[in-house]
Amino acid sequence: MIKTVYFVPAAYFGDVKEFQLMERLTRLFEDHGLIVVHNVEEAQLIIAFGNSLTPNDAYKGKKVYLADEEKAFNDSKAVLEKALKECKPYEDYLK
Question: Which key words tag this protein in UniProt (predicted)?
Fold first, then answer.
């Protein structure tokens, strides 16, 4: 069962909107019993915003979900639900 989550924001989203999204997602995920961590090594689930995933050895052995930031901003709960249901091992993204 996933307990810890780490967010990887997209560079293109904009500082203010990104801050608002991260605050909103943190509250939502914590309200659902998840712990948002600020160190990728502590995470069981990585939610990366954008269309692709940059290779990163720190992601090995972790579950990953790619999310669209605009959709997450407009419907954060849907991202929570999809991330928990549709996340897959990081190694699957490398194939």
Answer: Transferase
pTM, rounded to two decimals: 0.91
DSSP H helices in 1-95: 15-31, 69-74, 76-86, 90-93
Q: Give which of 67, 71, 51 is closest to 6, Cα–Cα.
A: 67
* Nearest CA-CA partner of 9 in 80, 64, 69, 89: 69
* pLDDT at residue 25 tops 70: yes
Contact 48, 64 (CB under 8 A): yes
